[in-house]
Amino acid sequence: MAEQHRTVYVVTDLGETARVDQEQPDPRTVLVPVVRQLVGLAIVVVPILATTGLLVGLLLGWSPTALGLLTLLGLPIIVNLVDLFGARVGWPPLSWVAAEIADRYRTKD
Fold this sequence. Notes:
It contains four helices and no strands. By secondary structure, it is mostly helical.
């Protein structure tokens, strides 16, 4: 009887030789920059999408709960739009109003 030899091929890292002593990076250190970018993107994208959803929801007659949630999520954009509208009408900027309120309630030392 003839001896049978089996050949096993191991494919690793597209041509790089695998080393046993090679340290694997900590998953948390790899994940932190990715999560940071996603959070930064969410801070910008969520209010824009919520404001767009609010406009569509108003046109389609969505429930007050959905509109309220979209208003809350889109608040940064809505505040800026109100400030721009106020500047067009002649109102003082919101930053000036906030400074006046802070001056009025500031304690005198």
